[in-house]
User: What shape does this take?
Amino acid sequence: MSWHWETFVFAIVAFGILYWLLNKYAFGPLFGIMEKRRQLVLEQMNAAEASRKQAESQMAEQKAALEQARKEAYEIIEQSRLTSSKQAEEIVQSAKAEAARLKEEALKDIESEKNKAIAALRNEVGGMSVKIASKIIEKQIDEKSQEQLVNQYLKEVGSK
Amino acid sequence: MHHFPIVHWQGLNIDISAFLAIIISCVITFVLARLAVRNLSLTNPGKLQNFLEWTVEFVHSVIASTMPLNKVRPYLALGMTLIMFIFISNLLGLPFGIVTEVHDPIGWLGITSEDIQEEEHYALAWWKSPTADLSVTSGLALVVFILVHYLGLKQNTKHYLKHYFEPYWYFLPLNIIKELAKPVTLALRLFANIFAGEVLIATILMLSVWGIPFLIVWQGFSIFVGAIQAFLFTILTMVYISQATIHDEGAEH
Assistant: This one.
């Protein structure tokens, strides 16, 4: 096996040129793209982490909001239950009061009607008894004193 | 054994087979790399791009095994060029050979009638692996040798110079021999492995038809050897660079 310095030098030069060409036209862009991809993956991982955290906080917020809404709904129901029972109570109360008032009025009316009827009856009876007495005793008595007399008698009768 | 076609031109001895092999290896390496990066894609890399990226990651991990991770980046392109060029060179001589038999003297190749008469079959081999030529592997080793010592001197001057006198000053000759042995072994190991592979292929070819099974087995093994040698050359280069340039504080005695 022989050793030629021409081949030796040519190999070195060729390797140098190959290294330069590869570095410029192949590895440069390739390393660039690999670095970019590394960045991209890193970014995406960070973004995923951020969105996960955001989702978690939103979830918690929504849970709190739901809890709040539930509480409010419960309160509203409770309140309405209270007011409705109170209103029912009031309605019943007022109806009772109305009924009592009506009854009272009716009783009063009855009383006054009765009194009126008694007074009318009394007048009627007084007139009739004057007519009867004037007819019976045929005595000339002025009507006024007669009526006084009869009234007096009737009072005596009523009080007895 | 075959002879190689050597052109004698203006006092230069140009080995056509070696020149041709070097050029073809370089072209294949460059075309392969260019094809791989033709349609670079960030999110959807093609098959070749994927393969080259895998190679880059492999070389990256190889270099990272010899030196701290933050110093790997500048040597990545060198490692890639070395491993790709040497691997392709190692495989170049495997698939076929071009051999011509010479019966008449050829003036421009310096073949005289005495040369032809000396041997029964004077044959010229036109096709081989560039790494099966000691001139080529020694050229690569010289590149590595110069690079290692230049980087050592430039980046790690004090410790680089000091290590020649360690552990005692009179170890200087031994240290120099050690440094010189590195490129020599680098060149000889690569050359011998690939050259031996090709010699064995040539020998098996002499068995004609009966050699086919051996040829299949040996060619398969040669691919494996070629890969191993490319890997070894690359990792040893990186180890040498790392030894020369990186001063490990923890290793101080």
